[in-house]
Every structure is written in structure tokens, then in C-alpha cells.
Amino acid sequence: MVMLLVMATVLGSLCIDQDSEEKTASANQTKPSGQESTLRYAATFGPEGTLDPAVKWTGWYLREAGVYETLFSYDENMNLQPELATKYEQVSDTEWRIFIREGVKFHDGTPLNADAVIYSLNRVLDDNNTRKGEYDFIESISKYSDSAVTIKTNSTYAPTIASLTDPVTSIVSPGTDLNIAPVGTGPFKFESYTQDVSLSLKKNDNYWNGTAGVDRAIIYFVTDEMTRLFKLESNEVDIADGLPQSEIAGLHNNPEYKIYSTPTLRTYFLYVNMNKEPLNDVKFRQALNYAIDRQQIVDTALEGVGGTPAKSFFGSMMSWSINDRIDMVSRDEQKVRSLLNEAGLEDINGDGWLEYDRKPFELNIKTYTGRPQLKPAAEVIEAQFESVGIKTSVTILDKGALETDLNNKDYDLSLYAWTVAPTGDPDYFVSKHFESTGAEAQKLSYSNPEVDEWIEAGRLTMNQTERKEYYDKVQEQVLDECPEIFVFYQNSLVGTNKKVAGFKQYPNEITFLTKDISIEE
Question: Which parts of the chain have pLDDT scores under 50?
């Protein structure tokens, strides 16, 4: 956990402990002699053209495919672990030394060394990289030896090591055209890719951590959840992610399939446009918060299996969460009506709908296609708001159009889904959403100098206990002010046929295909 990371930071190093038994491949022991085993996987999302991991979120898809690795990563319990690094040392408040695993080779046979690490990380720091701003804390990356690099930061920056788990920092082989031919160090090598159709992979026989359990893997990109289910049921694929919530119970009762469900770090919440009246009134925002029945949303829109009610933006699987000392905000109609009245909303003409400033009033919830939970959840929230007299509508847009509206502050409320801590560190989310300069905070028009101070202090403080105190304060203040209203945490729902073994789910949704997956004949 991140707490352990920071503890390790204080101590100055994180040591590697690899289990040599894990390096034993399993599939080759179970498949018929002379036959290749191929794992077929129906995935919801895939790369959008380029295969370069340093471009936007492309690295996530290549990481899920087992092509790329990072210096550090998280296991299935969100414990930080060394990956292409073996350990790190904090030399000073602004200087980190990272020791690189020796004997590792890229898929093209070139060795992993300090030069490759520097080349890879500098690609993120390039002025043309759209995610450069997330790594502006890095002053320089230099070679300490062939197997060690030194990262200097502009100031004390506690999330430094955690930031190196993001797939945008994937370590790549220098000198290759990464847009069309990714070359990493992972258990699977790239073979071919057709945009929006499939990605074909072959096992890396020289993988540093053992041989993959299957000879080949084909990832099919299938946006429709029922089509993914059909492909699983018709034996066109061995694994399907994002299964329809309505079909889970039936699959559980079918011995031909294994169903995996685990909480993720993906939180669904409402952006609130505080640039508009009465959304700029905390009383009105609190009224909306109390008008939501989160359990009803989980029971209906999520069929009782797709998630759990949210208490804050961090779910309980994160050590940074304050969920153990707060209660979920429950629907309270009496409190809603009192707060609405204080915010100046009243039913003047007795038609059952509230007016604001003596004029008809209506809220609109914008959300987007791509995640099947969003539309039904927005519709349940619409009904819950209308039950307290707030006329409400729902608008479904494609994600690009919604992003444009958010940037232009052309919205009332927007239901959105975010993985709140893919790097395991709380700063990833809070600095974007609640620090005045954060890109998402500006979409909200949210600014609180005290919150800004706590977020900055959280970044500058190396002591884990003190950091936790700052992020606790941020959570408490945000829950009180409601610039965003948190609705539910998503569960990952994955189905495999009964032949698939060794599959694990990762809460940060970054890792999917691993060397441990095999097909038992």
C-alpha cells in the first residue's frame, strides 16, 4: 500500500523479493504436446490509433496487454512493488536514485539499461507531450551508472516513486517506431494491430520473470457488453471484461464459467458547475447530495452487482480513504427540502415543481456513452431529484462533446467516472479536482485556499502520517462543500471459461494479461 511506500521512502530504500517459483510456466505443462495455446480476450477499450505508450492513455492498453512494464507497479492488493527497478533510495528531499534490474532485455534483444530508462522518461517530459504537466515536478533525469539513474525534482515531491507506476512512463526500447511497433520488456511481444478490431501478441520467450503461460494472445476490442458476453458464451473468446450486470447471476450458476468481481478504484460522481446559480450556493449542492439514494442506484442501475455506494472519492480499499470514520450520506427528504428552501427554491404556483428566483427552474445532467453504468445511474438520479420537486433532464453525449462542454462550463451537472488513484497516491486525483489550479477544479469553478494549502503540504511532506492528515482534511472539506457529489464505486466484472487459470484482477485496472494466465486442457 501507499502507506508502506512512504514508510519505505522514509527508510530510504525498497528492496526486491521475487518468488522464484512464480517463474514456472504452467500452460506448457497442460497443453497437448506440439500445439500452441492461444488466449482470446474481449476487451471494452483499446488504443485509438497510435501504440506509443507516452501518448495520452495508450500506455494503459499496452500495459494491460502485457507488452510494457514500468519501474514500479502495484500488485492485485495495491501493494507497491519493484518491477523493472529493483529498489530506490531517497538521496535527499529532491533526489531519488533508482536501481534498474539487470539482465532484462527488450523484445528486440537490446538490453535494459540506464540509457533506455532516461530515454523513456524524457519522452514524457517532452514539451509536445500532452501529459507533460503531470511530470513537471521532475527537474532532471541523469545516469548514475549503467544500472542506476538519478531523478532530481524541483522541490520535495512525495509522490515521485508512485508516479513511475503510470503506464505513460513505460520503459521502451530506444530507436524503434513506437507508433506502429511497440517494443517493451513484458511477457508478451507485439505481433499485429488493427484499430478498433484486435491486437495480436506472442509470448516473450526471454521474459525476465519467467515464461508466459500461453503461447499467443489475441485481444478483440468489443465496445458492446452483450456482444462481449455472446463471444464468451459461444467460445469465441476465453475472457470477457465488462460483463452485463443483468447476466451475472445466470453466469454464476453456470459451471462452464468463472466470474470474477472486485472493487476498483473507479468512482462515479457528479461534477457541479459552481459557475451557475443556484449551484454556486453550498446549501443547494448539499441538498442535491442528500437527495441521492445511493443504495437505490446500486440496486437498480447497477443490478446490485456493478458497484457499491460511495462515501467519499476514495474507496475503502485505499489506505488514504476516510470511509472507516464517516457514514454514507443517506437520502433525507426533510433535510433536502429545508436546504432547498434556504437556497431560495420554493414552489410558488403549487404545481409541484420548485422555482428559483421566482422563475421556472430545471437541472440537466450530462453524461457520456462508453460506460454502460452511466445512463441508467443518471436516470435514477433524475427521478430522485424530481421526487423532491427539482425538474431534471438527462443528456447523453459522446465523451469528446461532453469534455468540450465541461471545458466551456456549459453544463449544470455531469455524471462521470474516474480512476481516482491509478498510481496509488492521493495527489493524482485531489490536485486535479480540488486544487485551484487543477484542470478539473477549473471546470467546477472550485477554489478554496485552505484546501490548496493542504494539497500542497501533502505533496511536500514525506511523513506518511502527516500526509494522511492533510488528505483527510481535504476529503472532509470537499464532502462538506460538495463541488463534486460522489455516487458509487464500480466493481470490475470479468468472466472466463472454465479452462482459464491464473487470472487476477487489479483494482487500478492497469494490469490484465500476465504471465500467470494459462489455459488448462
Answer: 1-30
